[in-house]
Inverse folding.
């Protein structure tokens, strides 16, 4: 993996400040500790930090075409680069290296913007064509690799793999985006294409920017080149699934096993990582290196299940047990993620990346299986609610269940069947609104109760409901399960899962590859009928069935644990004072985002064990940390 940066002006007389570009690029030195390189031209500057994985001796970037008129800086891997290179060589292109990066410049020469359809992998790149005076900026289809950009007051555009790169530029905005606060408190992250800063954006997954010098572009607009095949009505048959699923998964794993450095895999003990290790072991002549972490609390420890897979495939298994009070990383999270980020599994993810880097430079991961094959419990709950929603018209449901949801108390202490507040609210909504309500860190009513009147005024009636609404714009789903899976791909996968893994791995100079997020595998598997994925209370049913010959039964059919930490206990015990201090500090209260009395009530209810507000309070704490760090700038 690597880090990329850039400065571009539509005016070719614009002088690139090389010292500033180097400062921007070096802000992400952790992404590429092995090398750095620059291209400086008329109105354009590109920067690169390299973590060497393929073509260790010849992969220095920027990489150029034959006559040095096209330059590219690239973060990621193109897993089919050998096939593309062979095709391009047959067309007369001359390669100087064996690097997958060089494939990009020749593919651009041959196919222009359509070159992106040739690439299979995870990537973000910035390409400059000096002949055409064009800049081509691309992010991969599933958003595995990040890219940020901002158009500045002088008309120039800056780019960077991480937000901290852009913030080195004196003209980059430091103004907090109020809508991003609303989105963050809903999702636990700032969903693409927003960032926490006004006028600073993430390039969304499956989009590119095509900028030309000499044109007057006041507002640059990304172009979408790929989307999940949501509109398909063609479902896979049982025979197609039986004959192809394992083979397609194995092929997605195989193309990700090329490396000139040590390679291994994460192994959590769950279905997806077990599947990846099984495929790797069957494809490799040597034992696979696997890495697992666990907690010293049985309820949060799944190392015994990881051991089952490790023993079956005789892997070189590395295990590290983490103290359940390992919260020393909390203060580093803002520096790692640059924005408020509330997925508490970022802590164990950081630790497993730290462990893996001791033994390998590249690790394969099982991320993406729950979203593709409907493994989350929230999918089952949503579909159970949807059965009732489908029987009662919205015009009736909305007033009846809306009132019941408003009046019904929050009963965290009660048996599960009595904890119905969120369910009652969701029954009075459309399918997508209900899904947003059920998976929110803080529901709409909770956010509005916490907001101050002045912040509500600043929001100008904006609601994070618009994130889902925009994702679904122009689309219609006959299958409500496919609809919410699609929404997770547009928000959760890119904003939470891929962000978590990218930043945690890059903090250690570790490259993580994700076979289940191979776009060809996703396109195919998304056609598996929902009736095969969700069978009664069994999520990922068909995937598990296909894996029975490859992964131990106990790994496939045990209760899903997840990669979690004892958050509720932390916030009532060792983190209680830290939480209180952060959420009552002068810096936090001076933002006037919240009604402080309501915040204090939330804290007291959690500490007294009246309610479990751990998800809400952790989300607020991570925002508080971000605000504290902003004050220190």
């Amino acid at each position: 993996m690597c880090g990329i940066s850039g400065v571009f002006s539509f005016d070719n007389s614009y002088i690139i400040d090389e010292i500033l570009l180097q400062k921007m690029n070096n802000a992400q030195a952790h992404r590429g500790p092995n090398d750095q390189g620059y291209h400086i031209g008329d109105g354009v500057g590109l920067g690169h930090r390299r973590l060497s994985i393929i073509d260790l001796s010849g992969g220095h970037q920027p990489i150029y075409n034959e006559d040095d008129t096209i330059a590219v800086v690239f973060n990621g891997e193109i897993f089919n680069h050998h096939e593309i290179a062979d095709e391009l060589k047959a067309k007369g292109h001359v390669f100087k290296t064996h690097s997958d990066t060089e494939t990009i410049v020749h593919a651009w020469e041959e196919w222009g913007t359509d070159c992106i359809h040739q690439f299979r992998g995870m990537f973000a790149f910035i390409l400059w064509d000096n002949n055409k005076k064009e800049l081509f900026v691309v992010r991969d289809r599933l958003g595995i690799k990040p890219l940020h950009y901002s158009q500045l007051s002088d008309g120039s555009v800056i780019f960077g793999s991480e937000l901290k790169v852009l913030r080195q530029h004196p003209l980059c905005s430091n103004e907090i985006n109020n809508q991003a606060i609303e989105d963050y408190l809903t999702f636990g992250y700032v969903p693409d294409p927003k960032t926490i800063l006004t006028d600073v954006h993430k390039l969304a997954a499956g989009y590119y920017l095509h900028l030309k010098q000499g044109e007057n572009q006041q507002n640059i607009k990304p172009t979408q080149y790929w989307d999940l095949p949501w509109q398909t009505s063609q479902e896979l048959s049982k025979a197609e699934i039986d004959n192809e699923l394992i083979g397609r998964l194995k092929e997605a794993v195989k193309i990700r096993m090329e490396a000139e450095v040590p390679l291994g895999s994460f192994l959590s003990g769950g279905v997806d990582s077990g599947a990846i290790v099984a495929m790797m072991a069957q494809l490799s002549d040597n034992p696979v290196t696997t890495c697992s972490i666990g907690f010293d609390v049985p309820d949060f420890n799944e190392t015994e299940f990881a051991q089952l897979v490790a023993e079956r495939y005789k892997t070189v298994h590395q295990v590290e047990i983490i103290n359940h009070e390992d919260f020393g990383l909390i203060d580093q999270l803002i520096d790692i993620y640059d924005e408020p980020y509330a997925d508490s599994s970022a802590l164990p993810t950081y630790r497993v990346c730290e462990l893996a880097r001791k033994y390998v430079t590249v690790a394969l991961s099982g991320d993406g299986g729950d979203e593709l094959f409907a493994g989350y419990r929230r999918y089952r709950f949503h579909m159970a609610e949807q059965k009732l929603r489908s029987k009662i018209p919205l015009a009736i449901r909305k007033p009846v269940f809306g009132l019941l949801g408003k009046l019904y108390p929050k009963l965290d202490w009660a048996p599960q069947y009595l904890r119905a507040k969120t369910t009652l609210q969701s029954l009075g909504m459309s399918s997508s609104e209900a899904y947003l309500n059920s998976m929110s860190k803080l529901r709409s009513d909770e956010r509005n109760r916490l907001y101050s009147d002045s912040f509500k005024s600043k929001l100008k009636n904006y609601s994070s409901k618009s994130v889902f609404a925009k994702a679904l714009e122009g689309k219609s789903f006959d299958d409500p399960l496919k609809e919410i899976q699609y929404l997770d791909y547009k928000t959760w996968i890119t904003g939470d899962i891929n962000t978590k893994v990218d930043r945690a791995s890059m903090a250690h100079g570790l490259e993580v590859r994700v076979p289940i997020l191979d776009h060809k595998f996703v396109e195919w598997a998304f056609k598996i009928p929902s009736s095969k994925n969700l069978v009664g209370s069994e999520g990922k049913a068909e995937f598990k069935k296909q894996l029975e010959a490859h992964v131990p039964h106990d790994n496939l059919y045990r209760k899903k644990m997840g990669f979690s930490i004892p958050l509720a206990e932390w916030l009532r015990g060792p983190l209680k004072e830290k939480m209180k201090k952060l959420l009552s500090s002068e810096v936090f209260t001076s933002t006037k985002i919240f009604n402080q009395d309501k915040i204090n009530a939330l804290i007291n209810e959690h500490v007294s064990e009246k309610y479990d507000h751990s998800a809400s309070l952790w989300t607020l704490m991570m925002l508080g940390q971000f605000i504290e760090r902003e004050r220190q700038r």
Summary: Residues 614-631 form the longest helix (18 residues). The radius of gyration is 24 Å. The first strand starts at residue 2 and ends at 8.
